Amino acid sequence: MPCSSCKARGHSCRMISSNSRCSECVRRGRKCDATSVPITNLGRLNQEKKKLELQESEVEDDILRVQQEIARLQRESSEKFNRLLRLRKQKRLLQSRSEAEAVRLDAELSVEDAVERDRLGVDELPFDGPSESGLVPELRSLGHVDVVDWSSVLGADPQDWVFADLAPGNDPTPGSIDGVVPGNSGGG
């Protein structure tokens, strides 16, 4: 801080490190109450100040880069989230169309069955045997590949399905003992 004399007169209060009075107080022969930094230290302080300003500028640049990266990631996240919402909406629409198509096909088959029953004059249509119903191939053509007509695989009547042969001790594999073929530890 400048001394009270320099401050009152509006002079620049400068002092050297070897003297405890400012140049103005020395010139006037007065007592100096300055707590200012000596002139010789100003150069070093200016260098320190410039160094700190440079570091401050670098940190500001780093902050700006990080904020730009955050903004980019937020945009990317927002785009991905919006894409997810669109995909979910498409999935719901596809599901509802698929369900509507299944209802339509069922109604169509019911009408065809009713027409056929009326034509034959029966209450129940005869079963032709273990062939796939007409609905299964149509559902598969619509992408429902996991639809299986088990009657075509195991027979029309579930009571005819034979699983008793697969019980322990009833292994249908010839030469096996409890499902293990001698010489083959992996089973029948």
Automatic annotation (TrEMBL):
Q: Which segments of the protein form a coiled coil according to its record? A: 42-90
**Disordered, as annotated region:** 167-188
The protein here is known as Zn(2)-C6 fungal-type domain-containing protein
Listed A to Z, the keywords are: Coiled coil
